[in-house]
Write a structure and sequence with these properties.
Distance between the termini: 188 Å
Number of strands: 2
Structural class: mainly alpha
Strand content: under 5%
Largest sheet: 2 strands, parallel
Radius of gyration: 68 Å
Strand order of the largest sheet: 1-2
C-alpha cells in the first residue's frame, strides 16, 4: 500500500489510467491486467481465505522499494530444480499476487469517489492559484512604478533630511562630548591660574551636560570623573583658603569666596577658614621658635621637630630670646592682620549686596544670603576672641618658657615693650584686656623686678659708700626729660612719636584717630620699629668742666648728641605731666641772678646740684617708670620700689651728714616730728640692722625682710672734721641739695605716677609724697646746723662775755670787744662760704639756713652769756642793748637774711630785766623758750633793784612749777 501511495504522489494529478500506464515494466508485471482483474472479480474468493493467502506472503516483500523480488526468489531455488515443485511454487506465488492485486483493486474502487471529489478540488485550487499569480504580477508591477515615482524621489528626500537632522544633532552631541573629554585640561589650566570660580562654573556646567548625555556609555564614566574633579577643586580651594591666613590678598580671597558661593558652601568655608587660622597660628609660632632653637642648637642631635611647642620654648637661648619674640609677634601680627582684613572684606561685601531687589526670586535668594551673611558675621566676630586667645596662649607659653630674672634691664624693657604693643594689638583686635598675657608677663615681671630691685639697692649702697659727694657737672637747663630713660614721657605728647611707643601712651589724640591696624594695613609691621627707636636714644646733659660755655664745651662727653630733638616744653625745668605747665616753685634764672650776693655763685650758671649717685637714682627711677608704664599690673610693686630708692637715699644722706647727738640739747627743734617718723619708718622697713622687729609700716608686706639693705657707711675719703673746708660743707651741700633736687624730680613725676597707680593703692602714693618726699628739704636744718655749730667759736664768746663788767653806773657809748670778735667770726665765716662756693654753688636756701643757724646760735649764746651775769645795773642792761644793736647793724651788712632770726629772743630777754613782779610772773609763764637757768638768772639779778626777796621766792617757785612736768 505504501508503494501505491508513493506512486500516486510522484505521478501527480493524473487519471488512474494514466497512472497505470506510467508504471515501470517490473511494476507492470506485478499489477494484473484488466482482464485478470475482471477474472479476479468474477472468481468468488472467501475473504478469510484471501486474508490467509495475504498473511502467508513473506514479510520481506513489504520491506522497501529497493527490494529485488526476482533476485530473492532465484536465490531461494534449491540446487536441484524440480519442475513440479517449481510450478507448484509458481502457482502459490501467483495466488498470492492475485490476492494482493484483488485487495488493491478493491481498495481503489472503494476510494474512487473520494478521489474524484478531491481531484476536483485540486483543479479548482489550481485555477485560483493561477489567478493569484496574475494579481501578484500586476501588484508587483504597480509597486515598482510607485517605488520609482514616489518612494525613491519624495520619501527618500524626507528620509535623507531626517537622517541629516539626526546626524547634525549627533555631531553636536559628539562635539559636546569631545569638549567634555577635553575639560580636564582646561580645568587644570584654570586651577593653575587660580580661577576657582571659573573652574567650578565649568565643572558644574560639564556635570549638567553630562547628565544630558548620560545615555552614552563614555559619558557615564566622564560624569564620575567630573565629580572627582569637583572634589579635587574643593581640596585645592581649601588650600587656597588657607593661604589667606598669612598674606591676605583681596582678589585672591574674592575668587575663593565666589567659588564657595557657587558651591553653596559659604558657611562651610567660614568654618574651614577658622580652622585654618587656628592651624596657621600654631604652625607659624612653631616654625619661628623651631628655627631659632635649631639655629642656636647647631649640630645637636636633639629631635626638636617632634617636640611640643611648650617644650620647644624652653630651649630658646637668652641671646635669641628677643629676636625670636619679635619675629613671633611679627608673624602673629600678619595672621591677625589677615583676619582683620578678612572681616573688612566681608563688611564691604555685605554693603554691596545689601541693595534690595524687586524680583520675588531675588528676594528669596536674598533671604538665603541674609542667613549666610548673618552666620558669617557671627562666626567672624566670635572668631576674633578665639584667635586672640590662641595668640595669647602661644605667646604665654613662650614668655613663661624662659627665666628672665637674669636679663639685662634694657633687654627686659624691650620684652615688655613688645608685649605691651602686642596687648595694644589685642585691644584693637577684639577689645580684649589680654588677661592671659598680663598675668604671664606680670609673673615674669614680678620675679624679674624683685631680683633687679634687690641688685639695684645693693648697687645703690655701693654707690653711696663710694660716693665722695663731688658735684656732677650738668648743664644749667638739665632736667630728667633729657635722659633717655625718660624719653617715653616726652613721646607721649609728641605727634611724631614712633608707633612702637604709641602703645604705652594714653594722652595723644592722634593715636585715637588711627589704630595700628589702620597704620599698617597695607605694609609695615608695628613690631619692626624697635631697633630704630633704640638707635635714637641719645642725651646731652653733661656740662664741660662744670662750666657752661659754648666755646669750652669740647670735652670727653662728645659721644652725646645735642638735645635739639627734645621738645621745647620738655627743656623747661620741670614740666607737669598733665598740663605741660612749669610749676610755680621753679625759680627763673633772672630771680636767681638777682640774689647772687647770698647765693655765693658769682661765676657760674645755676646748674642743678647733684652727684653721680643722684643721677644713677634718677636713671633707675626712669627705668622703673618705663617698666611700670609698659606693664601697669605691677605698677604698685614698682612704685613701692621707687619709694625705697628715695627712702634709702634720704636715709643715707641723714646718717652721713645729719645724725648728731647735740640736736636734743640745742633745743632748736631741728628735726620735725614728721621727719623723725619718716626716718624711723625707713629704718624699720628698709634698713637691715641686727635687731629687726616686725614691720609696722602700713605699706610693708612680709617680703620686706628680704628687701632690707644694710645701712650705708660714709666713704673714708670724705672728711667732715676739717675746719678749713667748713667741716665738709661742700660735700654736705652736694649731698643735701642733690637730695632736694631728687625730691623736686619726684614732685614733677607725681601726676604721672598717680595715673599709673591702681585706685586702691593711691593713698600709699599720697602718703609717700606728703610724709617722705616733702621732708627732704627739712634735712637742711640738722645737716647745716652741725656746720653752723662748729664754724663759729661760741665758747670763746661766752668767755669774753664773762669778763665784761655789767654793774656799771654810767651809760656807755662804746660796745664791748666780744661783739667785734663775734662779728669777725661771722666775717671769717662769710669768707669761707665764698671759698666753698668757688667749688660748689651754695644755693640761696642753703646760705639762708646756714646764716639762720649761725645767727640763732650766736643769739642764743648772747642770751646764755647775759644769763651768766651775776650783777647787772640798768646801765649794764643798756650796754647789753648797745652791744646787740651793734651786732645787728654789722650783721645786716654781711647777710641778706631778713628778718634777723631770734632777734626778739635776745631783745625780749634783755628787756625782761625791767619788768615788775606781776609782769615777770606772766613773762615766766609765757616764755618757755628760755631755760630754767636763764629765767632764774633774770629773777636773781633783778633782786635788790625792783624785786624783793619774797617776790623772788614766789617767782622761783613759779619757774620750778614750769620745769616740773619736764622731769
Amino acid at each position: 500500500m505504501q508503494k501505491i501511495k508513493s506512486l500516486m504522489a510522484r505521478q501527480g494529478l493524473k487519471s488512474p489510467q494514466e497512472s497505470m500506464a506510467d508504471l515501470s515494466p517490473v511494476e507492470n508485471l506485478r499489477i494484473p491486467s484488466k482482464e485478470e482483474l475482471r477474472e479476479l472479480r468474477e472468481q468468488p474468493i472467501d475473504p478469510q481465505a484471501e486474508q490467509e493467502i495475504i498473511d502467508s506472503i513473506e514479510e520481506v516483500y513489504f520491506s522497501n522499494d529497493s527490494f529485488d523480488m526476482v533476485q530473492h526468489e532465484l536465490e531461494k531455488l534449491p540446487p536441484e530444480l524440480n519442475l513440479q515443485e517449481l510450478e507448484e511454487y509458481r502457482d502459490k506465488l501467483k495466488k498470492q499476487q492475485a490476492a494482493v492485486s484483488k485487495k488493491v483493486a478493491d481498495l481503489i474502487l472503494e476510494k474512487q469517489p473520494a478521489y474524484v471529489k478531491e481531484l476536483e478540488r485540486v483543479t479548482a485550487l489550481q485555477t485560483n492559484l493561477q489567478l493569484a499569480a496574475v494579481i501578484c504580477t500586476n501588484a508587483r508591477r504597480q509597486l515598482s512604478v510607485a517605488k520609482e515615482g514616489f518612494t525613491e524621489a519624495s520619501l527618500g528626500l524626507l528620509a535623507n533630511q531626517r537622517r541629516r537632522q539626526l546626524l547634525t544633532g549627533l555631531l553636536k552631541s559628539l562635539r559636546t562630548i569631545k569638549t567634555l573629554q577635553r575639560t580636564d585640561v582646561r580645568l587644570s589650566e584654570m586651577l593653575e591660574e587660580e580661577d576657582y570660580p571659573g573652574a567650578i562654573q565649568l565643572c558644574l556646567e560639564c556635570q549638567k551636560a553630562a547628565s544630558t548625555f548620560k545615555h552614552y556609555s563614555c559619558i557615564s564614566e566622564l560624569n564620575s570623573k567630573l565629580q572627582d574633579t569637583l572634589e579635587q577643586i574643593e581640596e585645592q580651594l581649601d588650600v587656597a583658603l588657607s593661604k589667606t591666613c598669612k598674606n591676605f590678598d583681596v582678589s585672591h580671597y574674592t575668587k575663593v569666596q565666589s567659588a564657595y558661593t557657587l558651591l553653596g558652601k559659604t558657611q562651610t568655608a567660614m568654618d574651614q577658614l577658622h580652622m585654618h587660622f587656628t592651624q596657621a597660628i600654631h604652625n607659624t609660632v612653631f616654625q619661628v621658635v623651631l628655627g631659632y632653637v635649631e639655629l642656636c642648637a647647631g649640630n645637636a642631635d636633639t629631635k626638636f621637630q617632634k617636640m611640643q611647642y611648650k617644650d620647644l620654648c624652653t630651649h630658646i637661648t637668652l641671646d635669641s630670646y628677643i629676636p625670636c619674640l619679635t619675629d613671633l609677634c611679627k608673624a602673629l601680627w600678619e595672621v591677625m592682620l589677615s583676619y582683620h582684613r578678612t572681616m573688612q572684606w566681608h563688611e564691604e561685601h555685605d554693603k554691596l549686596e545689601a541693595a534690595p531687589s524687586p524680583d520675588d526670586t531675588a528676594v528669596l535668594e536674598s533671604d538665603e544670603l541674609v542667613v549666610d551673611r548673618s552666620y558669617v558675621k557671627k562666626k567672624l566676630e566670635h572668631g576674633l576672641t578665639r584667635i586672640w586667645q590662641d595668640v595669647q596662649l602661644k605667646v604665654k607659653a613662650y614668655i613663661l618658657g624662659t627665666d628672665m630674672s637674669n636679663f639685662k634691664y634694657d633687654d627686659f624693657i624691650v620684652v615688655l615693650d613688645v608685649i605691651s604693643r602686642l596687648m595694644q594689638v589685642g585691644e584693637e583686635f577684639c577689645g580684649s584686656k589680654s588677661e592671659v598675657l598680663q598675668e604671664s608677663i606680670k609673673r615674669q615681671s614680678v620675679n624679674y623686678f624683685k631680683n633687679y630691685h634687690r641688685a639695684r639697692l645693693e648697687e645703690l649702697r655701693m654707690f653711696l659708700e663710694n660716693e665722695t659727694w663731688e658735684l656732677c657737672p650738668v648743664k644749667s637747663n638739665f632736667n630728667i626729660a633729657q635722659l633717655h630713660e625718660f624719653k617715653f614721657m616726652g613721646q607721649c605728647r609728641s605727634p611724631s612719636v614712633s608707633p612702637s611707643r604709641q602703645a604705652v601712651s594714653s594722652t595723644s589724640p592722634a593715636q585715637e584717630e588711627m589704630s595700628l591696624f589702620q597704620q599698617y594695613l597695607q605694609e609695615g609691621n608695628p613690631f619692626e620699629m624697635h631697633t630704630e627707636h633704640r638707635e635714637e636714644e641719645t642725651e646731652d646733659v653733661l656740662a664741660s668742666n662744670g662750666y657752661e660755655s659754648d666755646e669750652l664745651e669740647k670735652s670727653v662727653y662728645q659721644d652725646y648728641d645735642s638735645d635739639s630733638d627734645v621738645p621745647e616744653e620738655l627743656k623747661q625745668d620741670f614740666v607737669d605731666e598733665q598740663t605741660g605747665d612749669v610749676p610755680l616753685k621753679s625759680v627763673s634764672r633772672e630771680t636767681i641772678r638777682s640774689k647772687k650776693k647770698s647765693d655765693y655763685n658769682l661765676n657760674k650758671t645755676n646748674a642743678p646740684i647733684l652727684t653721680n649717685t643722684t643721677l644713677n637714682v634718677i636713671r633707675l627711677v626712669g627705668k622703673y617708670m618705663q617698666m611700670m608704664n609698659i606693664l601697669k599690673p605691677i605698677a604698685f610693686d614698682v612704685i613701692h620700689c621707687v619709694s625705697q630708692l628715695f627712702d634709702y637715699y634720704l636715709y643715707a644722706v641723714y646718717t652721713f651728714f645729719g645724725r648728731n647727738d647735740m640736736y636734743e640739747s640745742s633745743g632748736m627743734g631741728l628735726i620735725s616730728s614728721r621727719l623723725r617718723t619718716t626716718l624711723n619708718r625707713i629704718q624699720e622697713s628698709l634698713i637691715d640692722v641686727e635687731a629687726v622687729g616686725e614691720n609696722a609700716g602700713v605699706h610693708g608686706p612680709a617680703e620686706d625682710k628680704k628687701e632690707k639693705v644694710p645701712s650705708p657707711h660714709l666713704s673714708q675719703l670724705v672728711v667732715l672734721t676739717n675746719s678749713g673746708t667748713l667741716y665738709g660743707l661742700a660735700q654736705r651741700v652736694v649731698a643735701t641739695e642733690s637730695l632736694v633736687f631728687l625730691a623736686e624730680q619726684f614732685e614733677s613725676l607725681q601726676s604721672h605716677l598717680d595715673t599709673m597707680m591702681p585706685a586702691a593703692k593711691k593713698p600709699f602714693l599720697q602718703q609717700f609724697y606728703s610724709q617722705t618726699v616733702s621732708t627732704a628739704s627739712e634735712l637742711r636744718k640738722p645737716i647745716y646746723w652741725i656746720v653752723a655749730a662748729k664754724a663759729i667759736d661760741y665758747e670763746q664768746m661766752l668767755l669774753m662775755m664773762a669778763g665784761v663788767k655789767w654793774d656799771i653806773r654810767e651809760i656807755m657809748s662804746q660796745h664791748n670787744v666780744y661783739v667785734d670778735a663775734l662779728l669777725k667770726e661771722f666775717e671769717q665765716f662769710n669768707k669761707r662760704l665764698g671759698d666753698v662756693s668757688r667749688h660748689v654753688r651754695i644755693p640761696l636756701p642753703v646760705s639762708n639756713v646756714l646764716w639762720e643757724h649761725c645767727i640763732r646760735l650766736a643769739n642764743r649764746t648772747l642770751v646764755e652769756g647775759y644769763a651768766n651775769v651775776k650783777k647787772c645795773s640798768n646801765e649794764g642792761r643798756a650796754l647789753m642793748q648797745l652791744d646787740f644793736q651793734q651786732f645787728l647793724m654789722k650783721l645786716e651788712k654781711l647777710t641778706d637774711l631778713r628778718p634777723i632770726p631770734d632777734k626778739e629772743f635776745v631783745e625780749t630777754y634783755i628787756k625782761a630785766y625791767y619788768l615788775t613782779e606781776n609782769d615777770m610772773e606772766q613773762f615766766i609763764k609765757n616764755h618757755r623758750e628760755y631755760s630754767m637757768k636763764q629765767l632764774a638768772n633774770l629773777v636773781n639779778v633783778c633782786l635788790g633793784s625792783h624785786i624783793n626777796k619774797k617776790a623772788r621766792q614766789k617767782l622761783l617757785a613759779a619757774i620750778d612749777d614750769i620745769d616740773r612736768p619736764k622731769r
